[in-house]
Amino acid sequence: MNSNLNQEAKAEYIRAMYEMVARSFATLVSDRFVSPHGGKRKEQIISVVNISDHQSLLKSAKNGSIAYREIIFGSCSNPKPCPYGGIDHVAKCGGGDGSQPCPELLIDRDKEPLIRKVGELIRKRLDAAEKDSPLSTSLQYQLTAVQRTLDVITN
Fold first, then answer.
1. Mean pLDDT over all residues of the chain?
2. Mean pLDDT of 123-143
3. DSSP H helical ranges for the chain
4. Would you say 48 and 59 are in contact if contact means Cβ atoms under 8 Å apart?
5. Contact at 8 Å (CB) between 105 and 61?
6. Who contacts 141 (Cβ-Cβ below 8 Å, separation ≥6)?
7. Contact predicate 35/43, CB 8 Å
8. Buried b or exposed e, range 25-52, using 16+ CB within 10 angstroms
């Protein structure tokens, strides 16, 4: 009986997870989210599924063709794991290392205060870091990513 309960709990958890992905992905259509690559890229991201059809969204979440992961800058729509982190290291997300911002990034305008706070924290860490060290370089890339992301929000 205990095994049966565990299986039921696991199945319910998985159903809830797919439901959350579907509902969260549907919010990406709002003006709150913006791509650093412009409106056409945002449309490409959200057009993989009919956002207004919840069953279609749920099916796409289950088969892995859509993804929604909340990150510091907004959301990541990459259905594959990010090789660069993306949750605690934002340099690649925002293109702070000189590359373009991640094409799977949708910036959440409502996160502007949080993004500014992250920038302040990075600045403080950068001021305390040894000059020309790997840490200093990493922090500078992250700070550049934050600044580029804020530029997208404010323009």
1. 89
2. 95
3. 2-27, 39-46, 54-63, 91-94, 112-128, 134-154
4. no
5. no
6. 91, 96, 97
7. no
8. bbebeeeebbbbbeeebbeebbeebebe
Residue 63's DSSP bridge partners are none
3-state helix/strand/coil string of 129-147: CCCCCHHHHHHHHHHHHHH
Kindly report each contact of residues 54-61 with a partner whose C-beta sits within 8 Å and lies 24 or more positions away, as own/partner. Answer: 54/22, 54/26, 57/22, 57/23, 57/25, 57/26, 58/18, 58/19, 58/22, 60/22, 60/25, 61/18, 61/19, 61/21, 61/22, 61/25
The span from the CA of 28 to the CA of 107, in Å, is 10
Q: Are 91 and 138 in contact (CB under 8 A)?
A: yes
* Each residue's pLDDT tens digit, 4-22: 768 888 888 888 988 888 8
pLDDT in tens, 52-99: 888 888 888 888 888 888 899 999 988 888 887 666 678 989 999 889
The torsion angle over the Cα atoms of residues 19, 31, 154 and 152, rounded to 10 degrees, is 60
β-partners of residue 71 are 74
Find the length of the chain.
155
The pTM of the full predicted model, rounded to 2 decimals, is 0.86
**Mean pLDDT across 112-138:** 95
